[in-house]
Amino acid sequence: MSNQATAITEGRIGFLGAGSIVEAMLSGIVKKGLLPSERISVSNRNNMERLKQLANDYGVTATQDKFEVARSSDILILAIKPKDAAEALQDLRGIVRSDQLVISVVAGVSTSLIGEWLGAECPIIRTMPNTSSAVGLSATGLSANPFVQEEHRELATKLFEAIGTVYEVAEEELDIITGLSGSGPAYIYYLVEAMMGAGATAGLDREMARQLTLQTVIGAAHMLLDTREEPSLLRQKVTSPGGTTQAGLEVLEAYQFQEAVTAAILRAAERSREMGAQYQ
């Protein structure tokens, strides 16, 4: 396959859904020149204002006709809510073709169930990006059904590399990836809320507390990336016996901070499994 960005496909991409992940993908695809905007279609069920906004911002074709999007697309991206997925996909039975690549960002719904709903033996790739895709920094897990060929993997990888990093995994691992990186930004935001709040409570100007907190989080992430050292080792290096950091960490340990984070991630993964099971 060519390395030219515009050669990602000679066909069309269609999105069913018009939420934040779709906009992030549109931004990445258009800005990086992966596909001309006139070969991209977006559909949703009832929000024409949202569709007009995406059409104006990215130059894509916006329509409420999901059937036309499905018929005309070589790559069909499913970005609908899990509760709407069964009805929406069963409506497309007989429309989706075996030579179409279907990419799903629907949480908890397996490739086999998507294929069953569509009534088609087509290549299906299931993914789990996160909301950091809006700034091109998503961590996306990706898994494929048996009909997926190498060219399909390359196409999906290029699409999601436009909004971050991509990791191909076994499908059964997508639930824990959902809990870890799919829901993960919310845990970081929760921590940032608490750090900012502590600064403000102690008398700092709220904007200063925000900037100090964000730079601290960015700096810590870069230390982990650049040094490639274990987080436990970096934590030890910054923790002097009897010092301020140790005093703060002792409070976190008393509140079972690590146990709480672990439990949150595992519960989110469990919820992903529950969401998928209710459709079986």
TrEMBL record:
Keywords: Amino-acid biosynthesis, Cytoplasm, NADP, Oxidoreductase, Proline biosynthesis. PROSITE patterns: P5CR (PS00521). Transmembrane segments: none annotated. It is found in: Cytoplasm. It catalyses: L-proline + NADP(+) = (S)-1-pyrroline-5-carboxylate + NADPH + 2 H(+); L-proline + NAD(+) = (S)-1-pyrroline-5-carboxylate + NADH + 2 H(+). Pathway: Amino-acid biosynthesis; L-proline biosynthesis; L-proline from L-glutamate 5-semialdehyde: step 1/1. This is Pyrroline-5-carboxylate reductase. The gene is proC.
